[in-house]
Specification:
heterodimer, A: Rossmann fold, 2 domains, two-stranded antiparallel ribbon, B: 328 residues, alpha/beta, Rossmann fold, 12 helices, 20% strand, globular, binds thiamine diphosphate, binds magnesium ion, 2-oxoisovalerate dehydrogenase subunit alpha (chain A)
Chain lengths: 362, 328
Amino acid sequence: MTRDAALLLPSTEPVTLIDPDGNPVHVGQDMPDPQALVHAYAALIAARRFNDQANALVRQGRLAVYPSSHGQEACQVACVQVLDPGDWLFPTYRDSAAIVARGVDPVQALTLLRGDWHSGYDPLATRVAPQATPLATHLLHAVGVAHAARLRGEPTVVMAVCGDGATSEGDFHEALNFAAVFRTPVVFFIQNNEYAISVPLARQTAAPSLAHKGIGYGVPGARVDGNDVAALLSVLGAAVDRARAGDGPQLVEAHTYRVQPHTNADDPGRYRSADEVTPWLARDPITRVETYLRGRGLLDDDTIAGYGVDAEKLAETMRAGLGEDTVADYRDLFAHVYAEPTPQLREQQALVADELSREEAR
Amino acid sequence: MAAEKLTMANALNRALRDAMRADDTVLMFGEDVGPLGGVFRITDGLTAEFGEQRCFDTPLAESGILGMAIGMAMNGMRPVVEMQFDAFAYPAFEQLVSHAAKMRNRTRGRVGVPLVIRVPYAGGIGGVEHHCDSSEAYYAHTPGLHVVAPSDPADAYGLLRKAIESPDPVLFLEPKKLYFSRSEADLTLPVPPIGTAVVRRPGTDATLIAYGPAVPVALEAAEAAAQEGRSLQVVDLRSIVPFDDETVCAAVRSTGRAVVVAEAAGFASVSSEVVARVTERCFHSLHAPIRRVTGFDIPYPPPKLEHVHLPSVDRILDTVDDLQWEDS
Ligand SMILES: Cc1ncc(C[n+]2csc(CCOP(=O)(O)OP(=O)(O)O)c2C)c(N)n1
Ligand SMILES: [Mg+2]
């Protein structure tokens, strides 16, 4: 840890390693090795397909709602790829693609948004916390998991993800401070997509960048191009290594853009122009790494086609798993409130059972 | 002006607009309430009409929103703030309980905080986790706050106007599932003040007591009971704090039987308060214990199970059937 202000401040510009045209940019950071980039490319293809399929499932009435990460897939993929199997991910509602990239079953990952239950996967088995909707609240849990890991002598690093809007909540600031004071191995990863529903970044902060918020807590800040998976792997990877080495938390701000509506229920025409979105489409996170890898002979048509087939299988799994009508079990409502249901909950469950049996008898 | 067909969302928007026209200290702020007009469009067009100074988006922080509103209310303004959803109001709890509710008391009446906290409230919209809480008991349990919940467009308009005029902080609970249902309303007619309950449907056999989103369900149950030859009276509380003991008790005395209907969990709730108060006051007029149909004592269910949780017509009628009719 350092208290040297110069070392805590982020770079003036976000780190880019591959520019939007697919050319390498030479900065101090190391380019990830080719296998890591090819792996990330495959994951990007899968994540894009996942987003598109989830959007389609909303239109078909199979999901209640979907906050898409379309255009933010480089962030989704990179924040997971830099983790070890024993590390933890603390995602938000927007990070379903990251959860799937982490290896969680896609149907289980979408249980929340399908409306069957609040979380469909096992957080302890997958080391993925339940998706947090109350903004920034989970960042403190991330600090707690990391601190407990240190006390237990585990080499765990925690990746705690939030949006630009969430940085305005008090819990964001408390989490950074706690993490710094206790020197916990947490990487705070902000996906700055410039909007919190309709509210632009300028209404969230007057700071030079969100990464600058680290300095007030003694947490080093870093800025990275959120559509450049190479830069993300490099910057996030360094932050994870640092945390694992015992050097404490880091704050990483990825500069990206929410090209789609906040969710399917949103109407961006009310607060931003299409002209604002267009330039971001040209900065798509998939095309630039594809161009870069192809240009170096690290990717060919056959390999790309193979990834496409894999992504299609993922989509097929989603359609099959989410296309069925499920019957949610009312007993779940009462079973998981406490370790042992109270007498009152047993009574209430019996009331529903009685209603249902009378309905059947009718 | 004559009656017109409008939604509760229209009526609330009209109330804000009319209040802002009538008094330029009235301000509206919160998350996405500016150009977007709020996620439920309740503030639609207000920034366009009144400008960025009067209706504006804040940084995303509920504690900040309410804390700043308290300060503005201390200095001559009448802020109306929106909490985007019931379960997202909790970061503001400290400001609410320790400050909004107590400022008048702490200062021996010298400093009031006239502000309104609008909360899209309760269930029935198929919302995913954290989008459908019934949080009224927390608020009602906090002395110093008024808590109101309209059940139709006319009342939504009238109560919001009165809430904005109130010298004290008002928690204004807007039933989300009623936002877009239309009914006839004449917004020029006065509505009873905050603190007054009304009888929505006359009846002689038993009284259903409800508020907010449960009122239409109670009315539907009364209609169904009428088909079966039983006459149910329906009382709409409108205002949880202050509580109208007089109207509610007179209603229950007139029938001798009562069922309280509410979406919130029943344990330690507004519905339990209603039962306690009415029993204390009307014991000798009761032919049966007052019963309740409430949400279960569980976290709000996921969309696919909310129908099990919410008070239904059948569950109300079953409970009414249980009111010891054989004894009378
Ligand atoms: C405490 C809290 N307040 C309000 C909301 C409602 N809400 C959901 S998402 C959102 C915007 C969040 O923006 P940001 O943090 O930038 O994340 P993004 O959605 O852009 O990924 C808001 C206001 C919430 N979920 N939690
Ligand atoms: Mg955002």
